[in-house]
Each structure stands twice: as C-alpha cells, then as structure tokens.
Specification:
Layout lengths: L5 H4 L4 H5 L19 H8 L4 H5 L21 H16 L7 E6 L8 H11 L4 E2 L1 H4 L6 H10 L1 E8 L1 H10 L3 H8 L4 E5 L4 H7 L1 H4 L4 E2 L5 H12 L8
Parallel strand pairs: 1-2, 1-3, 3-4, 4-5
Helix pairs in contact: 6-13
C-alpha cells in the first residue's frame, strides 16, 4: 500500500498533496500511484517562476504587501505564517541602520546553499547580514542569531542537514529560542530537510511554518522573502 508523505514532506500546498502517492488521487493533478521525488522535481522546475508554479493551486494569491504588478503567489499557510512577520517588519521600518535580513545558517553551508540564498536576496535588492562578511568566527549560534536579529528587520534560518547536525550537537535551549520566536521575526527556510526532521531536534523552531525548497525553487523562495522585507512601494491588494 502506498505510504502517505504528509509526516515527512507535508501537504501544505495542493501540489504537494497531489504528489503524495497515497493521497494524490484525491487532488486531480496527479495519479494516486505517482511518486514524488525532490531531485526530479528540482530538475523539472529549473528556470521556472513562482507564478507558473503556483498557478495550479487555485487558493494561492498575492499578499497584502505585494507590489503592484507582482506575480509572486502565496499559499494560505504561507500567508498565515508570514503576515505576523510582515507586521513586525513594518514596525521596525523606521529604525535606522538595520539590515533587511539576518541569514542564520550552518558553517558547512556558507560556501554553497547559504551563499546561494544570500546572493539571490542581494540580487533582488535585499541587504543581508551574512556570517561570511559580518559574523566573527567562533561565535555561538544562538548569540549570533540574537545579535543579527537586533540589527536586522527579520531573521531567516536556513535549515539543512548540516544545520540539523549542528543544532543537535550544540543544543539550543527551548527557553532561549522561544524568546526569538515570540517576536515573530524568525522564518525557517527548509533546504534538503523536512519540518519533521527539524521538530526532532528543535520542537519550538519546528513548530513554526516557513518556506521550503522541496516545494519551489530557491529563487522563488528568495522572491517571497524579498517582497516580505521590502517596504518601499508596497501596496495592499
């Protein structure tokens, strides 16, 4: 019998649910015996835009903070997750000398996935606090998260297998992490990792929904983050 992928991959979007070998038949986009592979998905999605990716999900729509003419679409879950973050971004918009984003990542990812996300964000006009240019070596993960958030409008955590290993090895106290999450300034970005894996090592961070490159290309994730932190010319829709 086909196994449901919800526990590991989630059914946060219609396309993700449709790709499940156990549940896909109920969503019409895939046959119930189809098999979803992140690698095959990534290769088939290379070069695609978020507007074409989301067009199959009738419930996806623009955010209230989307700029005029934007083609970036969000699922209902993403809107629920990102709206409180956006509200805090707007509150902090008048604070001088803040970066748009603090990028928290594992040391092993600094030359690859973290740099890729950093470069994509900066190409979209986002100023990024990035360890390669801003954080001293040897600093603790939690201390740098706190420091970076204090000097940035929003923090994003790039969750990869390397990040999970680092958190598991060093440990992050739930009490301390909860103080960061309570401010609605932290957005997990899953990359080659699942929310279930994150919950196993950090239940508090894992309880927070975010964005995932298992569901859309890294460039589309960066586009959503860029819209999230951009104040100038933002329009309600």
């Amino acid at each position: 019998m086909a196994q449901c992928t919800a526990p590991t991959r989630g059914h946060r979007t219609a396309s993700a649910a449709a790709a499940c070998p156990a549940c896909g038949g109920r969503y019409g986009g895939y046959r119930s015996n189809s098999y979803y592979s992140p690698s095959s998905y990534s290769s088939s999605r290379s070069g695609s835009s978020s507007s074409s990716y989301s067009s199959g999900n009738s419930s996806s729509r623009r955010a209230s903070w989307s700029r005029s003419g934007s083609t970036v679409l969000y699922t209902p879950t993403e809107l629920r997750t990102l709206t409180p973050v956006r509200e805090n971004v707007e509150k902090r918009s008048s604070v001088p000398d803040l970066r748009d984003v603090f990028l928290c990542h594992a040391w092993d990812d600094r030359k690859e996935s973290a740099k890729q996300l950093h470069d994509l964000l900066e190409s979209k006009g986002v100023s990024v606090w990035f360890s390669e240019k801003d954080v001293l070596l040897g600093s603790s993960l939690l201390r740098e998260i706190d420091k970076g958030l204090a000097k940035s409008r929003v923090g994003i955590v790039l969750v990869t297998p390397s990040f999970l290993n680092r958190v598991k090895g060093e440990g992050i106290a739930d009490k301390e992490l909860s103080a960061l999450l309570a401010r609605d300034l932290l957005v997990p970005i899953m990359h080659n990792a699942t929310f279930e894996e994150l919950r196993e090592v950090s239940p508090l961070l894992g309880s927070r929904s975010g964005l995932s490159t298992l569901e859309e290309p890294m460039n589309d994730v960066a586009s959503k983050l860029a819209e999230l932190v951009t104040i100038e010319d933002a329009e309600c829709v």
